[in-house]
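Lab notebook, page 48
Experiment: co-folding of the full assembly
Goal: obtain a model of how the components sit together before planning crosslinking
Operator: M.T.
Materials (sequences as entered):
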Amino acid sequence: MRIDGGCHCGFIAYEGEADPETAAICHCTDCQKLSGSAFRTVVPVQDSDFRMTGGKPTIYVKTGDSGNKRQQAFCPQCGSPIFSAAPGDGPKVYMIRVGTIRQRDQFAPKVQVWARSKQHWTNDLAAMRSVEKQP
Amino acid sequence: MRIDGSCHCGYITFEGEADPEKAGICHCTDCQTSTGSAFRTNVPVPGNAFRMLSGEPAIYVKTTAESGNPRAQAFCPKCGTPIYSTTPGDGPKPSYMVRVGTLRQREQFVPKKQNWFRSAQPWLAALADIPKNAKQG
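Observation: model returned without errors.
Model output:
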């Protein structure tokens, strides 16, 4: 389906095509650190189906468990993480951060990866106390 | 308990004191966009119990809160890791909302409550049912 999205401040914007059946959660420790949260939600988009329409993201290159290098793109003004991708030129797949997609509600994840480092309490969210807004 | 943490690249490091009983989740739409994920995990650290040890975070002041209150969001300018949010402006801060994912002691900070649940992603209630791989697919 068609997607569009961007960072929180509006500097970065993009549009593309993504398949909700390929949405995933990553529980790896890099994602926990880089998001500051419990896990990341991502969906892959082929480069031929992805277009940046606003400003240029800052790129940080991390090295994964495999030894492979990975670009992490984020907005230099507000810090929102936008995508990750393999470094260099050539065809590539962008892993878009689902939280930045305007249609995020249609991208329920279908698989969880790196579950070995999952925060165990993420299984018990239905039982955790909640308030509709702020206390 | 004592905490210490950092961004992913190591430019920003900090230490402090935080109470694991105060750890929480925020499901607001600002947090979903700014983390790129489903929600944020936070713990408040009193202003006088927080110390930056290295690096200068970039600060983004967001103004989209329903209350109208502006909020300063600190992140690493080199790797993008979000570190904390606090009241904007100079001077001592009453408190910092530190992002639990950045803490070395993150396993001890199990959230106890969820805010802005009205915008929570519905699939979170059945996370245990989503197929999982120990490592990559």
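Interpretation: Chain A touches chain B through 61 residues (CB under 8 Å).
Next step: discuss with group before ordering constructs.
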